[in-house]
Design a protein that fits this description.
Elements lengths: L1 E5 L6 H12 L3 E3 H11 L2 H11 L6 H11 L9 E4 L5 H13 L6 E6 L2 H9 L1 E4 L6 E3 L18 E2 L6 H24 L3 E5 L4 H16 L1
Parallel strand pairs: 1-3, 1-4, 2-3, 4-8
Antiparallel strand pairs: 5-6, 5-7
């Protein structure tokens, strides 16, 4: 079972990936985590990525694919995986298909979490993160912190990340529409797309996703 998680900014791919990997019994491969792992370990692709990032340039697709090729050679993903963070463009989608074809595999399905742009802005711009421990995350509407300025867990001061501003979120949405929406359409054209609503509680979205996957795989 090889599944891609797709969805616009704020759709909840990371959260759903954590739940789905436990239910489905397959590892979650997150491209951002994979990047950090390669950089910290000083691998060839990691050193390339670090140098490119320090120049402020965009990391070529080939570097991502080299990291992913190594990751998919591990035994824990031999029976499947959830992939989050790639492909973001049609070019990456084609490279991913070629990479999997090397191993005699293919993407079985793309699971698309659907929300509106207004909801994405509302979700992301309302996030607040603890300065003491960044794993403590709150939301001014959905998970209010203590007094709106202090972490409920440790009492630390909260902050909004610069890339969580409303304008940045809108810009990220526009990039999604131009580059990644066509990826969603391409999986749909191949009969490998399932779209579920990203609205509601985490459990509600997870239940919808599991139901949709079960229906697809029969």
């Amino acid at each position: 079972m090889r599944i891609i998680l797709l969805g616009p900014p704020g759709a909840g791919k990371g959260t759903q990936g954590m739940y789905l990997k436990r239910i489905l019994g397959v590892p979650k491969v997150q491209v951002g985590d994979l990047m950090r792992e390669n950089i910290s370990q000083g691998t060839g692709p990691g050193l390339q990525a670090k140098e490119i990032m320090e120049r402020g340039a965009l990391i070529p697709d080939g570097v991502y694919m080299d990291m992913l090729r190594t990751r998919l050679s591990r035994t824990d993903v031999s029976d499947g995986f959830l992939l989050d963070g790639l492909p973001r463009t049609l070019g990456q989608s084609q490279r991913l298909d070629a990479l999997l074809d090397e191993r005699g595999h293919k993407i079985d399905i793309a699971l698309h979490l659907d929300i509106s742009r207004d909801e994405a802005v509302r979700r992301i711009s309302g996030r607040r993160i603890c300065k003491v421990d960044s794993s403590h995350v709150f939301h001014v509407l959905y998970a209010p912190p203590q007094g709106y300025d202090a972490c409920r867990v440790c009492g630390g001061e909260l902050m909004a990340r610069p890339d969580d501003s409303r304008q940045v979120v809108k810009n990220r949405w526009e990039v999604w529409e131009v580059h990644t929406d066509p990826v969603v359409a391409s999986y749909g054209a191949r009969g490998r797309l399932v779209t579920v609503s990203g609205y509601g509680s985490v459990d509600e979205v997870t239940d919808r996703a599991i139901g949709a996957l079960a229906a697809f795989f029969g």
